[in-house]
Design a protein that fits this description.
The strands form two sheets. The chain has a seven-stranded parallel β-sheet, with helices on both faces. Strands 7-8 form a two-stranded parallel ribbon. It is an alpha/beta fold. The longest helix has 21 residues, at about 85-105. It is about 40% helix and about 20% strand. It contains seven helices and nine strands. The protein has helices at about 15-25, 60-65, 85-105, 125-140, 165-175, 190-200, 215-220; strands spanning about 5-10, 30-35, 50, 70, 110-115, 145-150, 155, 190, 210. It has a single domain, classed as NAD(P)-binding Rossmann-like Domain (Rossmann fold). Helix 1 (about 15-25) packs across helix 6 (about 190-200), helix 2 (about 60-65) runs parallel beside helix 3 (about 85-105) and helix 3 (about 85-105) packs parallel to helix 4.
């Protein structure tokens, strides 16, 4: 077996990050190095490093990870930030871009970021506009390779209670049937499937900037065995 790919994971405590860590327990082809502010409980059998630092020290932690790929699954909510849109943007836009800059400065040439279906700098929706601004900022960094994943509703078990999102998850299999044509990109996706797509994309070597919506994410999943 070839050497495993070292992945620096920022956003390890969220749904996608935790799912990646859980899946990596049974994989020999990847090694995850997490960057976080606080300790987190790891699943049994996890073989990974956690680099703990305040946000101001994340650039040094990313460099110390000696990773080949940076995966950024950072995200907060307006509710968590007490309705403060500037605090939300500081995490979902500014901090994500700062992590991309740190990766570039550290010589990490490939970044995979979890964005959102509908992200658009011209959107009237604050959340989607912020995600679009984040994507634009990363693209301006000119990393050798950038994969922007735009999932719709993420299905999976979160550590925090989100009643409205839970109701949407329960309804999503039926709702997905009606999302066709240009609306297919809003279809839901399981967090474990998205994590598998991230692992598959981490092995890709071609350079460029790629925006991956629902169909493209499914294509990445189908190519896992290639």
């Amino acid at each position: 077996m070839s050497n495993p790919i070292r992945i620096c994971l920022v956003g390890a405590t969220g749904l996608v990050g935790r799912t990646m860590i859980e899946q990596a327990v049974h994989r020999q082809d990847v090694r995850i190095v997490g960057v976080a502010r606080h300790e987190m409980q790891l699943p049994p059998g996890a073989r990974m490093e956690m680099l703990l630092a305040p946000v101001e020290g994340w650039a040094d932690a990313i460099a110390a990870s000696r990773a080949k790929v940076l995966v950024c699954a950072l995200g907060t909510t307006i509710k968590r930030e007490n309705g403060d849109q500037s605090a939300f943007a500081a995490v979902d836009r500014d901090l994500v871009i700062a992590c991309g800059q740190a990766a570039r400065d550290a010589g990490i040439e490939h970044m995979i970021v979890i964005s959102s279906a509908g992200a658009d700098t011209d959107s009237k929706n604050f959340y989607l506009r912020t995600k679009g601004e984040m994507e634009r900022g990363l693209m301006r960094l000119r990393l050798r390779r950038l994969d922007v994943l735009r999932p719709g509703l993420l299905r999976g078990s979160r550590t925090e209670r989100r009643p409205a999102e839970l109701a949407a998850q329960l309804a999503s299999p039926l709702a997905d049937l009606f999302l066709r044509g240009k609306y297919r990109k809003y279809r839901s996706i399981r967090a474990d499937a998205l994590a598998l797509a991230v692992f598959a994309l981490a092995r890709q070597k071609a350079g460029g900037q790629f925006v991956r919506e629902w169909d493209s994410i499914q294509l990445a999943l189908r190519r896992i065995g290639d």
